[in-house]
Amino acid sequence: MRIYVPGDAAAKALGADEVAEAIRAEADKRGVAIEVIRNGSRGMVWLEPLVEVQTGIGRVAFGMVQAADVASLFEAGWGEHKLALGLTEDLPWMKMQTRLTFARCGVIDPLCLEDYEAHGGFVGLHKAIAMTPEAIVQEVLDSGLRGRGGAGFPTGIKWKTVAGAAASQKYIVCNADEGDSGTFADRMIMEGDPFTLIEGMTIAGLAVGATRGYVYMRSEYPDAIRVMQQAVLIARNHGLLGLSVMGSGRAFDMEIRTGAGAYVCGEETSLLNSLEGKRGVVRAKPPLPALEGFLGKPTVVNNVISLASVPVIFEKGAAYYKDFGLGRSRGTIPLQIAGNVKHGGLFEVAFGMTLGEIVDNLAGGTATGRPVKAVQVGGPLGAYFPRALFNTQFCYEEFAGAEGLVGHAGLVVFDDTVDMLKQARFAMEFCAIESCGKCTPCRIGAVRGMETVDRIARGDAAAIPLLTDLCATMKAGSLCALGGFTPYPVMSALTHFPDDFAPLKEAAE
Ligand SMILES: Cc1cc2nc3c(=O)[nH]c(=O)nc-3n(C[C@H](O)[C@H](O)[C@H](O)COP(=O)(O)O)c2cc1C
Ligand code: SF4
């Protein structure tokens, strides 16, 4: 009997370790031979710990299992039980998705190479090895893949720049800092399917002529760090990393590095400083990291999901990947639904779904049952969307047109009890705390911003144009997007929720 109990950090936080232990103990007691596999999460976080049992017709799921339920589950022969949900693949959350990047996550044993290969692993790398570096770059260009870390920059163009740079040494740096509020896609794939990231980074190395790679991971992800470290060791021991990748005669190796925990260290240039052992301060651009990055050498800096999406592009072909999506937003995006929602989790889908479909249908509205008031999309620098903008399609250009951003595709939902003035103040406070201090509009502006929001809270109407002016200055004058994008949450709160800003409400009355 094969039983899957997620080893994913979210599932563990909800009791998965205790459940796995209870299953082993109960099986022992009953003399039942079982194999417990600690898989990744299927992304239905509200159902964790989600235990699955392999049957002749597929895997059957049991949701929100606690250690105390285990005896009764054995008693029921893992059949009819109040926690039984039916076949995992038949659950609406699973059926409605297009899982390309996350196809294996939750399905396989994360550190079993045989399982990885049995589910399409390394097909992409095999193909890439047979291609010239130029052809690899062209395939990524043709796929339409854009950076999933926040800026949405075309991945193929970045690779082409690094490939074209003449240097004795080049690097691939994977940005696994994942600092955005409500996001967990990077963590989930690193814990649930780490070889995908290794495969994607290796293909990137072959494409641009980089022989070394680094994954810069946030220290708050101990499980992901452990899994990634083990996966790198396994890959190296099997000749997938090293002087001759898969016997190709081309070298690529990588290591895992851990940051000390600063939001700004997710910004690519401060990340590179941190990786070099320096203080995580933003570097002025130019030079671009693609030309002078890690240790001054040409460097590809890509987000985990950008790199983890590369293997499937090579496995299925650029045209297949590009066929999904809308406009200039091609392929799929792993939505991360969080905050006050009934159904929180990861949902991979082609670009183009409306915000309303995501919040009302997928998330199922709020957990409190109260009306949704606002959704912040794209992390702490993302705009707050009111219901009036729920017809916005989830795409880079469409969100930019609504003064918002897709970012790393995190959505945090709030009900009608949220005070948007407080949220605007929080955005300024967050920026003040996390600012690297290099430029004045952000370092000083964020502190003045908090003070200005406080004046508005006290009913000072004159502070409103001041806040608007300050936001315009921060947007135009900041060196990086921390100071430059903080105006998005602030101005969207002010524009879409004027009733929460006392002087605006009074003026209207
Ligand atoms: C303040 C700040 C924080 C950021 N945090 C992250 C992060 O945690 N992860 C990430 O991939 N990109 C982050 N970025 C974006 C990176 O600077 C960079 O655009 C990205 O790593 C490039 O990879 P991509 O093209 O694959 O998206 C951040 C940017 C800023 C300004
Ligand atoms: S905007 Fe803020 S975080 Fe970015 S460089 Fe300026 S001070 Fe540093």
Q: What is this structure, in a nutshell?
A:
This protein is of the alpha/beta class and about 500 residues long. It has 24 helices and 16 strands.
Structural class from helices and strands?
alpha/beta
Sheet bearing the most strands, described?
5 strands, mixed
Low-confidence segments, ≥5 residues, pLDDT <50?
A: none
| Number of helical regions | 24
The residue-averaged pLDDT reads: 97
The helix content is 40-55%
Structure commentary:
There is one protein chain. The protein is α/β, with parallel strands linked by helices and 509 residues long. Helix content is 41%, strand content 15%. The protein contains 24 helices and 16 strands. It has helices at 9-13, 16-30, 70-75, 92-95, 113-118, 123-129, 133-143, 155-164, 185-192, 194-208, 222-237, 268-275, 304-308, 310-316, 318-322, 355-362, 396-401, 420-434, 440-443, 445-457, 463-477, 481-485, 487-496, 502-508; strands spanning 2-4, 35-37, 51-55, 58-62, 84-87, 171-176, 212-217, 253-258, 299-303, 325-326, 329-330, 332-339, 345-350, 372-377, 384-385, 410-415. A hairpin with a 6-residue loop joins β14 (372-377) and β15. α9 (185-192) packs across α10 (194-208) and α21 runs antiparallel to α23 (487-496). It is globular, with a radius of gyration of 24 Å. The mean pLDDT is 97. The site of flavin mononucleotide has 22 residues, from β9 and α22.
Question: How are the SSEs ordered, and which strands pair?
Answer:
Blueprint: E1 2-4, H1 9-13, H2 16-30, E2 35-37, E3 51-55, E4 58-62, H3 70-75, E5 84-87, H4 92-95, H5 113-118, H6 123-129, H7 133-143, H8 155-164, E6 171-176, H9 185-192, H10 194-208, E7 212-217, H11 222-237, E8 253-258, H12 268-275, E9 299-303, H13 304-308, H14 310-316, H15 318-322, E10 325-326, E11 329-330, E12 332-339, E13 345-350, H16 355-362, E14 372-377, E15 384-385, H17 396-401, E16 410-415, H18 420-434, H19 440-443, H20 445-457, H21 463-477, H22 481-485, H23 487-496, H24 502-508
Parallel strand pairs: 1-2, 6-7, 6-9, 7-8, 12-16
Antiparallel strand pairs: 1-3, 3-4, 4-5, 10-11, 12-13, 14-15, 14-16
Helix pairs in contact: 6-10, 6-14, 7-8, 7-10, 9-10, 9-11, 18-20, 18-23, 20-21, 21-23
Bound molecules: flavin mononucleotide (FMN) and iron/sulfur cluster.
